[in-house]
Each structure stands twice: as structure tokens, then as C-alpha cells.
Amino acid sequence: MAKITTLKAAVSELIDNGDSVALEGFTHLIPYAAGHEIIRQKKQDLTIIRMTPDVIYDQLIGMGCVRKMIFSWGGNPGVGSLYRFRDAVEKGWPQPLEIEEHSHADMANAYEAGAANLPFATLRAYIGCDLPKYNRTIKQIECPFTGEKLAAVPAIRPDVTVIHAQQADRKGNVLLWGIVGVQKQAVLAAKKVIVTVEEVVDKLEPHANQTVIPGWVIDAVCEIPGGAFPSYAQGYSTRNNAFYQQWDVIARDRETFSLWMERHVLDTENFAQFKDSIGVRSVA
Amino acid sequence: MSTQYSSSEMMTIAASRLLQNGQVCFVGIGQPSAAANLARLTSTPDIVLIYESGTIGTKPDVLPLSIGDGELSETADLVVSVPEMFRYWLQGGHVDIGFLGAAQIDRFANINTTVIGDYNNPKVRLPGAGGAPEISTNCKEILIILKQSSRAFVEQLSFITSPGFMEGGDSREEAGLTNKGPVAVITDLGVLEPDPVSKELVMTHLHEGITVDQARENTGWDLKFADHLQTTALPTDEELKVLRDLNERTAKAHAGAE
Fold first, then answer.
1. Kind and range of the H or E run holding A57
2. Complex ipTM, two decimals?
3. pLDDT tens-digit map of B214-246
């Protein structure tokens, strides 16, 4: 049953050092505030999972929180490289980063298998692709009915999934809409779930077929208006593309990055203070 | 006809002309997205554009910077989850044409977006596969767009992220792939198409003012040219106007992001 609580308490109580953590979001609804709280609490030795690790994963890696990353596309969308991710893979800074790399179709299927409590997913994939040579978790199986060769990949079962959504009600039922990515699957595949929301309302009023995740599969709900910045929450904010372009400059250099993180993340108490410190007014 | 245009505009325009009205097109972000939307705004108004973020039948007024810009979902016919996107719509066989960019390509149109150098000790770590491997094997046909240079058009790829014709000849079919694979590679210098038998990319078109030597110098393998090498038609005034308006709207929208 979801407890409506502070993000500080949720991250402290639900995420342990060494956990596998999926902060999911496909460009939209990325749980940035939660990522910052993980950094502030100096969580260590994490395995981070996400189809499209972007700036918040760059920050987690550069701040030394991460031992391993499972992913399918690691870049700054529309801009270019994630320099902290690259530095960790290419030069081992601030520590070596183990990677387990898949394709999008693979990870989307693997989350679904996790949500369905199956040990693996099967899909038509990877013929002619070099990834299976380097990622031994990708196997080939034969269809028992037709003999067709298919790819098989293990289900994703994160210790903790963290997502951001538009709304929750006071019982912790969560409503999200727009580009919903793989969030529902990632929630149902996880052992523990934290959801940050734009606002807590008295009553959810979902349109037919909007995604509602009941509070009884969620552990903690935290109200963080604008908690997806510089990503966005449809109906509440727009993607701050200018910030993604600025990140390219901030993250390129180790010292610039470290100073920026110290000043704006470690030295602030919460996400509202972070946004004030970089000069972004809280999104109403 | 206008003669005042950039090589990048020529590339986008040449690529847009290869799309056909009524096609369902799975679009990569960046150059493929620019060309596909130019086609939608000019010659192929009924093209269905799909982005891997789950947005289907999207009609963005400005080009998205990211695969998940709100512009894509707000102008889509429907928005589905990412698993549904890859399982039902792509693997389900509903997509005519996959439109990809690449960091590197070889003579058989295999592409690399993963790593330059050794995988475990890379010189340059690139973003990785994303949707490309399964786009390239589950769409009926593939278009590839990238600028031509000897660093991008290489003799030997460090890593094959998405297969083109693999080792050439029948190797793609023998590996079990049943779709057609890449039908054209559009560059800032011209267009390459696979030889029907060897499957090696052959330069079939050069854009106006581009020489054979220029194409050769910007290719890392011994580039072959079609017997009847053609010159790409110049951009029309309408193509240029629509593309420039689109780029202008896009630049304005992204600079003003709050």
C-alpha cells in the first residue's frame, strides 16, 4: 500500500546500496528529482537499469553511485554524447562501469516478462547484430512449434523501480498519460516502487484507457511539482531542450561537472532548491 | 529551381523524395525525422510517421529534438507503450519502411552506432543500438541517411549494430532475414543503392556539382559507380521553402524552451 511521504524518506527507506534500480521514462516523465535524492544520499554500488539512460544517469555515474548499467541507448537525446558515461566506459572515471547492453525491443520485452513473472522474454531480434557476442545474457532459442530461431533474454526484475507521473490521489493511486514508455511494466516487474508526482489530488479523473497504477502495487508516493525537469510532464510542463543542450557543456569536463553537481545538487536540500539554484522558477 | 542551397538541405530533400504517399514509416530522430517530415509537408501528405517513443501517425509542426518531445504525442493519432510499439507494431509487421541514421556504414550497408575501437576498451563509446537492430530486420525496407566521409564510410566496422547485407550476396537471407533490407543510402554527395547481386553499395546519383573524385575521396572503400550515373534533380523552390520554414520554426521552438 502506497504511503504518501517525502522523497528523502522514500529513497532512504526503499533504496539500499547495491540494489538494482530502474528510474524509467522514455524522454517524457523522467524521475530527475528522485535521481538527485539518490545522489544526495550518496547511494553506492547500484546497478542502474533503463532503456534510454540520459542526463540523470550521466549524473549518477559521474557522482560514483553506479557499479553497473543495463541499457539499450545511452545518449543525450537530440544533442549527442553523455560525457560522464563515456568517461566511465572509456577511462574508468570516477570508477569503472560494467555495462550490459541490449536493444530497445529486447528491453521492452524483458520488462514485460518481468511484469508477467516469466523467467525470460522471446522476440524476433539480433540477427546480424554483434551485441550477443558481447552480452552473454542474450541467447538464441528454437520455437517448439515452427523451429524458427528466436532471441531469448532474461526478464528484468529491478529491486526498485522509480517513475514520475502527473497525479496521485490520497490513497496513492497514480495516473499518467502521454508517452508512457515502459513505466507500467517496470513498476509491475519491481520488488519495490517509488512514484513521484506533479500533484496529489482529491480524486483522479482518468480518461478511458489512460494509465492508472493502483496504490496497492506502490510503496511510496511523493509530491514533487516539476520533478521531471529538464524532462517534462505532459499537461504540466514542456521539455526544457535548452537545458539538455547546456548539459553537453557542463558534463564534458570532470571538474566543471563536479563543481556543478556540488553546488546545485549536493549543496541543496531538495529539488525546489536545486531549481532555484540554477535559476529555473518552479513550474506551477 | 533554385541553386542557392546547402549540401545538408540537398541531402534532406533527396531523402524526402524516396518516401511514398501512404507508406508507414518508422522514423529515427535527427536527419531521418527531418526528411520524413519534409516529405509529409510536400509530396506525401498521407505518410504515417511512427517514432519509437510510441507515437503513431504523428504530425509535428516543429522537428522534435528528442524522440519523446511533447510535440510528437500531442500531434499523434495514437500513443502506445514502448513494449506495444516494438511487439505489435514493429515486430507485428505493420511498418513499410524504416528510416535510420548511423555513425558509420560499410559497403554492405551494415551500420554501427555502438562503439569505435574494441568493444571492451573503446576509443569512442557511442550511444548504442536503441531500436535500430529490430527496425532494420522487421520493416519491409530500410532507408539510411548520413553524411559521406571517409570516417563514416569505412572499410571495416568496429561493431555491427544493425545488419544491412551482412557479408553481401545472399548472406542476409541465409541468416534468416526475410525483409528486403536497405534500398538506398542518401548522403550529402548523392545516393547509393545496393547492387542486385553482390549487394555492395553502388553510387547511383551524385548531387548537382559533386564529382566522382569527391565521392571517392569521402569513402573508405574502393567505391563503385553505376554505369548510368545520374545527377539528382535540383531542389525545387517549394521543397526549399518548406524545409527552411520547418527549420526556422524548429530553431525558434527549441531556443525558447522553458
1. helix A55-62
2. 0.95
3. 999 999 999 999 999 999 999 999 999 999 999
Query: Do A190 and A161 touch, CB atoms closer than 8 A?
Result: yes
Domains of chain A: 3-101+157-277 (3.40.1080.10), 104-154 (no CATH)
CB contact, 8 Å: A131 with chain B? yes
Helix (H) or strand (E) holding B252: helix B237-255
* B208: annotated active-site residue: no
Instruction: Report the distance separating Cα A20 and Cα A48, nearest Å.
Output: 6
Best CA proximity match to B177, nearest among B142, B139, B137: B137
Predicted confidence at residue A65, as pLDDT, reads: 98
Tell me what pLDDT residue A1 has.
84
Question: Chain A residue closest to B171 (CA)?
Answer: A128
Across the interface, whether the CB atoms of A185 and B161 are under 8 A apart is answered no
CA distances from A230 to A101, A183, A260, A281, B77 (A): 25, 18, 16, 12, 26
Nearest to residue B78, comparing CAs of B96, B53, B102?
B53
Q: What is the DSSP letter of A252?
A: H
| CATH, range B7-188+234-252 | 3.40.1080.10
- Cα Rg, chain A, nearest whole Å: 19
**Rg of chain B over all Cα atoms, to the nearest angstrom:** 18
